[in-house]
TrEMBL record:
One of its GO terms (molecular function) is phosphoprotein phosphatase activity. This is histidine kinase. GO terms for cellular component: plasma membrane. It comes from Lacrimispora xylanisolvens. Residues 200-252 form the HAMP domain. It catalyses: ATP + protein L-histidine = ADP + protein N-phospho-L-histidine. It is an enzyme of class 2 (transferase). It is found in: Membrane. PROSITE patterns: HAMP, HIS_KIN. The lineage of its organism: Bacteria, Bacillati, Bacillota, Clostridia, Lachnospirales. Its EC number is 2.7.13.3. Residues 260-478 form the Histidine kinase domain.
Length: 480
């Protein structure tokens, strides 16, 4: 199984190697295309030049034949025959002379003299259409040149057919091609060196960024990671610094949480110990005093138990996230009415008016027990941290996607500097008053956790001395 995972792991591709290969590929394309175009142009130029040279030489030969009346001579001019043979050897080819009767009267190869040639090219040449072509497959030139009569009318009396090999040209092209390949290799080698140096220069900011990340991985998270060379490195370094700040905040929060847990658990135990030591140190204490002290001890034990229960609830929610939500269709109006009915006695003791306003009937997919706990915490806090004779208003509304629960009070309010931390575990704005009201500092943390488990959000609006409003938004349909 381990081997399967090992071999199924995707290979890691180096950005530096990828850039080098891409730049080399892009840089090599013009080199290969350019060399191919140049070699093709050179080849075509050689062929055109050779064909033009053959044509010029043969026109000179044709003019000489016209001047001396070569076609009607018998015997033929030996000097002109020798010149024709030399030109044929010079072009590594063959020259054939045909008269008006389409009979071959001269052949530098001495193979076809006296035979007849009625080819298409010959007929066209007699009609005044010269031809010149190159057979790439068989690698030879073929030309037809007219031979005129020596009269003033310039009638075509004969045709000169020239065939010439291009083997020597192809050998020159191969030589040039070999030199071109060597030049290509040299250019690509230089290009590779330039590309490697360029990519190393381009990658330098990323290597510097990696070095700073390695230092952070070793524990130096207090150093800012700064790389401003490229827009991308700036964005990466900004994201990493933001992440490090969050990690520092989480680490600080964890330390504070551990400290707060220790303090909160120790406080009731210290009170119990003081009360117990006081009882032990009293001789013949009256029964009423015993009952009073034991009642205080019982309250401290109950407080300790509540802290432990709240901590366990948070731990369970942290571990399971939304996995253990018992989601069902619940009428939110009825749920809120039940919560307010349960809390009215507490509000009545302080003469606080508790009202509920529903804009419409709302049914949503929620975990009834957990949501009831979250909303109860909000309403109970609104009652506890209120003024005598104040008010608490709970409002329910909904749209096509969410329902909204707003809990507003006329209480003491929360200063703006403390608003970001009210959802932190064990954080309390007024610690003395929290202990008087029996708060553990975990209620809002539990509430926020439950709201997030329902894929919702909670928002706080408050002004010191003017009251507080919590707004909960939760989707009507839970998507697992």
């Amino acid at each position: 199984m381990f081997q399967d995972k090992l071999f199924s792991r995707k290979p890691v591709i180096s950005l530096q190697v990828t850039l080098i290969l891409v730049f080399l590929f892009i840089g090599s394309i013009p080199v290969f295309i350019g060399s191919s175009v140049l070699l093709g142009a050179f080849r075509q130029n050689l062929i055109d030049s050779r064909m033009q040279e053959i044509q010029n030489q043969c026109w000179i030969l044709s003019n000489k034949m016209t001047r001396i009346g070569y076609l009607t001579m018998d015997p033929k001019d030996s000097l002109l025959d020798n010149e024709m043979a030399v030109k044929a050897d010079m072009f590594n080819g063959r020259i054939v002379i045909i008269n008006k009767s389409f009979r071959i009267i001269s052949d530098t190869f001495s193979l076809s003299a006296g035979k007849t040639n009625v080819s298409e090219e010959v007929i066209r040449c007699f009609n005044g259409e010269n031809s010149s072509k190159y057979n790439q497959e068989k690698k030879y030139f073929s030309l037809t040149i007219p031979i005129y009569s020596n009269s003033e009318e310039k009638e075509i009396d004969g045709v000169m057919i020239i065939t010439a090999s291009s083997e020597d040209l192809l050998n020159r092209i191969v030589t040039v091609s070999d030199k071109g390949a060597f030049l290509q290799l040299l250019i690509i080698s230089i290009l590779a060196i330039v590309v490697v140096l360029l990519v190393k220069l381009l990658m330098k900011p990323f290597r510097e960024l990696q070095r700073m990340l390695n230092r952070a991985a070793e524990g130096n998270i207090d150093e800012d990671i700064i790389s401003r060379v490229y827009k991308e490195t700036r964005q990466i370094s900004d994201s990493i610094n933001t992440t490090l700040k969050k990690l520092k905040a989480v680490d600080k929060s964890r330390e504070e949480f551990v400290s707060n847990v220790s303090h909160e658990l120790k406080t009731p135990i210290t009170s119990i110990r003081v009360l117990a030591d006081s009882l032990i140190g009293m001789e013949d204490a009256p029964v009423e005093l015993y009952r009073e002290f034991l009642s205080d001890i019982s309250e401290e034990i109950e407080r300790e138990n509540k802290i432990i229960d709240d901590l366990l609830a948070l731990v369970r929610m942290d571990k399971t996230a939304g996995a253990n939500l018992n989601v069902a269709q619940v009428k939110i109006n009825g749920l809120l009415e039940l919560i307010l009915k349960r809390l009215r006695p507490i509000a009545g003791k302080r003469n606080i008016e508790l009202t509920f306003e529903s804009m419409r009937e709302v049914t949503a997919d929620v975990d009834e027990m957990k949501l009831s706990l979250a909303l109860s915490n909000l309403v109970e806090n609104a009652i506890k941290y209120n003024i005598e004779g104040g008010w608490v208003r709970v409002t329910l509304d909904a749209d096509h996607k969410f329902f909204y629960v707003k809990v507003a009070d006329s209480g003491i309010g929360i200063s703006e500097e403390f608003q970001e931390r009210v959802f932190d575990r064990f954080y309390r704005v007024d610690k003395a008053r929290s202990r008087e009201t029996g708060g553990t500092g975990l209620g809002l943390s539990i509430t926020k956790k439950i709201v997030l488990m329902h894929q919702g959000a909670i928002k706080l609006q408050s002004k010191e001395g003017e009251g507080t409003t919590f707004t909960v938004r939760i989707p009507l349909t839970y998507i697992s």
